[in-house]
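Take a protein:
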Amino acid sequence: MQIKSFIELISVLKDKRACREFLEEQRWHGKPICPHCGVESEEHYKLKSRGEFNGLYKCKECRKRFTVTVGTMFEGSNVSLEKWFYAIYIFLSHKKGISSVQLAKDINVTQKTAWFMLHRIRHNMREKVGVQFNDNTQVDETYVGGENKGRYKGTQGRSTKIKTPVVGLLSDGMVSMVVVPHTKGTVLKPIVKSLVRKGSTLITDGHRGYKGLHREYEHQVVIHKEKEYVNADGYHTNSIEGFWSHLKRGIFGIYHLVSRNHLSRYCDEFAFRYNTRNISDMVRFVMFIISAYKRLRYRELIADFWLDTYIKLKTTY
């Protein structure tokens, strides 16, 4: 199916039936698969209600009922598939994302519903695109959120305790991020060792948290505090720093404020969009919906919110 724009998407996926059949084709390719026992067959029973088939099947083996949304992020949702598909397409195609306030207006739901939908989408973005870090891996850390209270306007740095540190790795145009409690060597070095193949060329700045990595890697260091941006061997960290600017423009420009406990999902969002930047919006959309298996429940999301609130109150008072 060649859909090249949002207008075409609306015209093709115009109702509940069209969206269900589209999802069935993308997930099953004509042979329904029972999510309970895994049997793939064209002979599963189609159950009708008042003489009309609405996507409810009965497995010919285990005899359990199922629909195409069972086992996906759409299972149990009161939001129609049309609105889900529109939200996903808009969210993935916008370079910097979309706020819950704007999405609520676009698909005619409450802001609370739109906020939950966006977090469900982000929850399914993790590990969608496999990243293998080998040679020429750039590693850097940044700080997101908070305010520079008591400091000169526009300054930032590792001493900004109210900000949340994030470690990023970039290689061959692919990025991955990890939200961390601090940027000491006890955190940075295990992350590098778990994600980057030993013996690879590793490029970092002069932060002392990376000290000692030369024993297992070809460690190239760029001394930024000496105004060095490309070292003597021609290595730099400009790519990962360019990604940081994209991440922060998106967060500050669209979302304005991001909770510490939700930050990892926002990082997953920007990593997914960056790693799939060279494919079309429709391919990205299909790739996402056929592999959206993680179901985030509202109580789990709210639990993160109350934990973050508790931490803020504890540190304030």
In short: The beta strands are 45-49, 52-58, 65-66, 137-144, 164-171, 174-179, 201-205, 218-222. The longest strand covers residues 137-144. The CA atoms of residues 148 and 160 lie 7 Å apart. The first helix runs from residue 6 to 12.
